[in-house]
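Input for the complex:
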Amino acid sequence: MTSLTKPGDRKKARIDSLAEAGALSDEEGVSLWRSAWHRLRRDPVFLIGAVIIAAFVILAVIAPWIAPHDPAARLLIDQRTTQNPVPGPQPGFPLGADDAGRDMLSRLMVGARQTLIVGVLATLGGFAGGMVLGTIAGGIGGWADTIVMRIVDVMLSIPSLLMAFSLAAMFARPSQWTVILAIAIIQIPIFARLLRGSMMAQRHSDHVLAARALGVRPAPIVFRHMLPNSVGPVIVQGTLVLAVAIIDAAALSFLGLGNPDDTQPEWGQMLGRSQQYFNTHPEVAVYPAVCIIVVALGFTLMGESLREALDPKSRR
Amino acid sequence: MTAQPTADPALDRSARTAPLLAVRDLTVTFGRGRREFRAVDGVSFDVAPGQTVGLVGESGCGKSVTSLAIMGLLPARGNTIGGSATFAGEELLTMSGNELRDRRGRDLAMIFQDPLSSLNPVVPLGTQVAEVIERHKRVSRGEAREQARAMLDKVGIPDPTRRLKEYPHQLSGGMRQRALIAMALACEPRLLIADEPTTALDVTIQAQILALLKELVQDSETALVMITHDLGVVAGLCDEVNVLYAGRIVERAGRHDLFARPRHPYTGGLLASIPRLHEERGRLTPVPGSVSDNIPWEQGCAFAPRCSSAIDVCVQQTPELVPDPGHGPDRLLRCHNPLPAPPTAAGSGQPAEEETP
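Predicted:
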């Protein structure tokens, strides 16, 4: 995303951020995160991403109240004919309806909620699992590192699709939980490796050596001196993984591995249903697809600019 | 200062009889087999309470490795440590990790070269100083914080109450090094190892930090091992100086002796490469070559390839570290062809006089 900004803009942004840093140093308690925040506030890329995500989250929260119709009600089922399986736009239904006569706009709005829940929970799950494994591997090192990293290697070799199929089989039927679990598990290795790598770098850093030279015990070394200095890249990765998780969830739902209950709309599931009408009514596929792309783009823009703002190379 | 070695009767008689730290034949080898590299090769020295001993030499001569080995901070794998280092009669090199960890920070402490990278960037200063106090003293969190504040005040950090809440990047370089000194001395250790504490600082701050160290060390009878490549630092602070070259001590002398009468050509070279204020300007005389030009000590004197007074025997026979004839037992020298005793002769450059950093 950095290539989108002109060199002149970046230079200006850097000067601004330097000026801000100077002004800030008089205040007390300016942390790395706060100075990153001051840079981000002026970063157009971040702002675009943030606006998209904010709109998406707000929509997901309030959708059931502002949706014009019940997303599960087959209101236009009468208009459905064999020649025209998908009712088109009409007063009260600006985007028309799906093949079961349910209002498209309402389904898209309510679908945001499912998408957000699946994306966030899957990412949090992957993040939590990755933090645990990465902390064990990078914090203890030695044999623990070897064992954990081999487990991670095995996890990394399982394709997400296979994981989702296996989990769906394990739980007797696919549901949004199997999707969340499948995506969380396949994200764990990414977080674990990233955290382990930055913990390894911290292990040999000067301030860890200095803390050891003053007798600080291993647990505080790991949790106070290594972990807080290592999570930056992992958190940034989290925002980027959110985009991937949303796309993956849509893909799994598209393939019928998501929530089979279509009274709870979800974008990937809507996309899956629309494929049989794609030749005659591409718009029913385009609506959910655009939603998925825009939201994934929002998380990617935010993640990339966050990464840049926290990058020590561009900071000083 | 509470229960300090001042109660030790041996101290009153002679510092020499009861060294606090006794390093004997310390050897550190990295790697093994054909790729073996001996970073420290039979280094021995004593530090008495209240004494300041300098380890001097250029990069790669083994001075930092020596200190890390004493502190037990070398990585657990990939190196072999031989010899002995006793602290108040206890062997440090074979001590268990837990025992040694209890002593680090409480009995022996260390400060490092780069004050910014030696502080945790995401933790406020007060928390970092208090952490060391809480670790070694049985005090409440609030009491530890109060002691941390007092310690910052003691090392000359203005407005310590405000600084406690600040992060390392908000402090100047000198402040950071003062903070590190505060952390190292927070539990009144009996031995402080300072590894190039002034190298990353500018000259005026260097002088302040050295003065601070000197003051704190003298007040509390703390033994200090000063590791530096800067003879100016040595001149201001050290009682005794060990000059290291390629992992071995090549010359040991009191500070005045070393500056007035350097005997080893390497020491002479180091002295000649110091800029002096009050003398006629000229080009500084560097020591030719670099440490990479070494030959192994087994094949003669490691410094011989760079030495202007090398003679045939220097590349045939390894010189031993022996008392320098005519200079008493405390002055040691490892050289076949030392510089002549009067300092005006070739090699030492100009008449050496004591200088302040």
